[in-house]
Amino acid sequence: MALSAPISIAATQTAWALALLFGLLRLSVVRPRLAFDPMTVVVLIFVGLTLVSSTFSYEPEVSIRKMVAVSLVSIAYLVFAAIRREKDLRRIVASLLLAAVVTSLYAIGVTVVGRNLKVTEVDPAGMLALAGVRANDTIVSINETAVASPQDLEAALHSIPSDAASKIRVYRLEAYYEYEIPAGAQRSNFGILNWSRGRDVRAAGFYGHYTTFAESLQLAASLAFGLLIAVPYALGWRYRLAFAALVGSLAAALALTLTRASWAGFAISGFVILLLGASKRAVIICVLLAIPVGVAGLVYLQQKRNVALVDANDGSTTWRTTVWSEAVRVIVDNPRHLLVGVGMDSIKTHWQEWRMFDNGRLPIGHMHSTPLQFAFERGIPALIAWIVWIALYFRMLWRAWRRTDVGWPERGVVLGSLGGSVGFLASGLVHYNWGDSEVVMIFYLLTGLNIWIARRAEAVGV
């Protein structure tokens, strides 16, 4: 699971399903005594309230099917049950970081080499310009065939009859557009005056979306940074150099996603980790180093996305503010919504009844905010249960971190998870990152590691 989590949701969920199957078989044979600590009880309450919400949903069949994603929380307890000793925990951490670095290097490599065809200059009288393609557009595909050069474009066009129309897909400033090259168009004059390999599409790793990739990188980079800060000076510079390289590669890939909330989440995570684990001198040095890095990041963001870090005129920002106000209206207008919400994914078929998404003038989606999504779909009691769950988890992490006689790798895991969780929750204010199964599986995996660290420390009295 740790090896596949940063790479493939299908492989990770297969590993989870097998672990769940054999875990249940083991329970039927070994029948261990189950310890229901306060956090576990609250998790069960949250899951139970979600099931109640799904039962009373406007679309119960749809919502109940979503309970499969809710049950991913079992990953935390499967991981906890699978660990027998420190060596197991360290292998899981190493596997997770190794896979995350592989995805990072892949994303960096794709950006360096480039992909698709970017037309930096076009002839206004050429076929592409007449179809709608502009200078600095990146041509992704034609007739669903990927293109990376004018030769690829020519081959794809000539693979279909000249009397058939062609669909061309381009990327321009965070949006994809489709244009049609009409049948019988002059295909010998593309009008490409200058071109390069495309490097504008935001990095998504092996995932299908850059936000999912960014959120997973934030958690992995925080884990690596926590281990870097926890390395004892007695171990020498090799360990610190290795973890610094890990953090650097993960942070570089995170930068290529151009996801502002995840950037901010990692910045908050890093500050928390430094504040708890580093000396005052180290904190000052890191803050001073972060200033030019941050300025460079803002310039890069402006060049690639044409937005500022906080931009009231950005379409994604105005979309959020509009939909958030609509969601609050729907919640408070009906006592049923306050109690059990509207049900998971019921918005997809009932948004018109609630006059949402500016009456359909905005793209249809979710709330882009984890707390608001929980309140909207599952009700206020479920939101409260989730807040209590997170509070108990932070209390567990804090207590584990304060135990100075725990091994440094375990302390590093706790510190990195503590910072990463703060960053994850911070970015979750403007992203529904809890709804990304790829990301939440990594979060639950780290939760399982920390449950084992905390419970073992309490059991042996270290």
Written overview of the protein:
The two termini are 29 Å apart. β4 (166-172) and β5 (175-181) form a beta hairpin. Helices cover 64% and strands 7% of the residues. It has helices spanning 9-30, 38-55, 60-65, 67-70, 74-82, 86-113, 127-131, 150-157, 210-230, 237-256, 260-277, 280-305, 315-333, 335-340, 347-350, 357-360, 370-378, 380-402, 408-427, 437-460, and strands at 117-122, 137-142, 145-146, 166-172, 175-181, 192-197. It has 462 residues and is α+β, with helices and mostly antiparallel strands. Strands 1, 2, 3, 4, 5 and 6 form a six-stranded antiparallel β-sheet that branches. It has two domains: 9-111 and 204-460, no CATH class; 115-197, PDZ domain (Pdz3 Domain, Roll), CATH 2.30.42.10. α18 (380-402) packs across α20 and α19 runs antiparallel to α20 (437-460). The longest helix has 28 residues, at 86-113. The chain contains 20 helices and six strands.
Keywords summarizing the entry:
2 domains, 462 residues, single chain, 6 strands, alpha+beta
pLDDT averaged over residues:
89
Query: Structural class from helices and strands?
Result: alpha+beta
Count of domain modules: 2
- Compute the CA-based radius of gyration: 25 Å
Helix-strand layout with pairing:
Blueprint: H1 9-30, H2 38-55, H3 60-65, H4 67-70, H5 74-82, H6 86-113, E1 117-122, H7 127-131, E2 137-142, E3 145-146, H8 150-157, E4 166-172, E5 175-181, E6 192-197, H9 210-230, H10 237-256, H11 260-277, H12 280-305, H13 315-333, H14 335-340, H15 347-350, H16 357-360, H17 370-378, H18 380-402, H19 408-427, H20 437-460
Antiparallel strand pairs: 1-2, 1-6, 2-3, 2-4, 4-5
Helix pairs in contact: 2-18, 5-20, 6-9, 6-10, 9-10, 9-11, 9-19, 9-20, 11-19, 17-18, 18-19, 18-20, 19-20
